[in-house]
């Protein structure tokens, strides 16, 4: 066991504070990573404040982890000391179910994936995330960060990047497709970049036009305010795919009206409250209402390579660990462009 510094929420809704945690000894197939940067995801806030249900405390959030390999187990073949690596939202799964064998570890049916934090590992011990100096992870759940990506802008790709890349690929965003992104936050700005790089015609649907200039610079072709009722009249029946990145309840019937026949509305943002739906909104037009999690390990590596190939990471604001609680409040106020990243050297 190794003692490392970390920032943790001692209880639900409590401010995060500096503490120490124990990391397991490096096993045969483990990789010890010196964490350099950790992104702050809205889901960190949901879980630290028990917005998604009962959680495990003390909690060290963080599943957007970028760092450098410091030690490897005797059986590790994929990585060596000094490699630039990342860890996303999961650190293990059953590895035996059909989904795990198909590279869909995020949808593991053999007990579910083991989250990077707020979960129990195979030994029944709590997992602790990336707001810390080091982490030990099985090599099969570690990905390589290409040399073309700086570690700070790569960190948010381990959640925000793959969470948007996976559904955009699955629903065939590309040339000839009209794709709308709901929300221009941490996930939304990555969705715009990725959809544009895939060749789709990209529209941002945001509450206001406050971030319009940013959206167009990042690759959007069009930008509309959803607070304007005329938006829904003008864009009715327009899109092949709508990707919702917001974590607030939406008027789903209103947004489904924007889909073409056979279009899909896909949720990657997860509101804490239930949402209402008139089923005629999907029946008329053979439309789909769907959701998507993160991506498997292989797809996450594919996403990182794709982003490096196209020369972009996340748009970030680098902060010290002492600013985490302030950053949480600013995320809730939509006051970040577009992802806070913690310099873990400041922990």
From TrEMBL:
Name of the protein this chain belongs to:
alcohol dehydrogenase (NADP(+))
Q: Which residues form the Enoyl reductase (ER) domain?
A: 14-342
List the Pfam families.
Answer: ADH_N (PF08240), ADH_zinc_N (PF00107)
Catalytic activity field: a primary alcohol + NADP(+) = an aldehyde + NADPH + H(+)
Which family is this sequence assigned to? Belongs to the zinc-containing alcohol dehydrogenase family.
First-level EC class: oxidoreductase
* Molecular-function GO term, any one: zinc ion binding
Question: SUPFAM superfamilies annotated for this entry?
Answer: GroES-like, NAD(P)-binding Rossmann-fold domains
**Keywords on record:** Metal-binding, Oxidoreductase, Zinc
Quote the InterPro entries the UniProt record gives.
ADH-like_C, ADH-like_N, ADH_Zn_CS, CAD-like, ER, GroES-like_sf, NAD(P)-bd_dom_sf
Identify the gene encoding this protein. adhC2
Q: Which cofactor does it need?
A: Zn(2+)
According to the UniProt entry, what is the EC number of this protein?
1.1.1.2
**Native organism:** Streptomyces davaonensis (strain DSM 101723 / JCM 4913 / KCC S-0913 / 768)
């Amino acid at each position: 066991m190794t003692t490392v510094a970390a920032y943790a929420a001692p209880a639900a809704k409590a401010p995060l504070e500096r503490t120490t945690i124990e990391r397991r000894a490096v096993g045969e197939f483990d990789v010890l990573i010196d964490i350099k940067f950790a992104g702050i995801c809205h889901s960190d806030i949901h879980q630290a404040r028990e917005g998604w249900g009962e959680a495990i405390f003390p909690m060290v959030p963080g599943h957007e982890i970028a760092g450098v390999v410091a030690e490897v187990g005797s059986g590790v073949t994929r990585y060596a000391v000094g490699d630039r690596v990342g860890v996303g939202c999961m650190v293990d799964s059953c590895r035996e179910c059909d989904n795990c064998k198909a590279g869909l570890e995020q949808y593991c049916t053999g007990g579910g994936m083991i989250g990077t934090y707020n979960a129990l590992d195979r030994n029944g011990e709590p997992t602790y995330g990336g707001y810390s100096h080091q982490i030990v992870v099985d090599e099969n759940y570690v990905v390589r960060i290409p040399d073309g990506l700086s570690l700070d802008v790569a960190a948010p790709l381990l959640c925000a990047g793959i969470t948007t890349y996976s559904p955009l690929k699955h629903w065939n965003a590309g040339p000839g497709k009209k794709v709308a992104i709901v929300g221009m936050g941490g996930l939304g700005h990555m969705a715009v970049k990725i959809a544009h790089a895939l060749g789709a015609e990209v529209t941002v649907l945001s509450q206001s036009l406050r971030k319009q200039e940013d959206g167009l610079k990042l690759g959007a072709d069009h930008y509309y305010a959803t607070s304007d009722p005329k938006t829904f009249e003008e864009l009715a029946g327009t899109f092949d795919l709508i990707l919702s990145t917001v974590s607030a309840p939406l008027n789903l019937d209103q947004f489904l009206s924007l889909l073409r026949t056979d279009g899909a509305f896909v949720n990657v943002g997860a509101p804490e409250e239930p949402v209402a739906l008139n089923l005629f909104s999907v029946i008329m037009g053979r439309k789909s209402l769907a959701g998507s999690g993160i991506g498997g390990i292989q797809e996450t590596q594919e996403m990182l390579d794709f982003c490096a190939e196209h020369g972009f990471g996340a748009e970030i604001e680098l902060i010290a660990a002492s600013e985490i609680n302030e950053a949480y409040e600013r995320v809730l106020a939509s006051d970040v462009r577009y992802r806070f990243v913690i310099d873990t050297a400041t922990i």
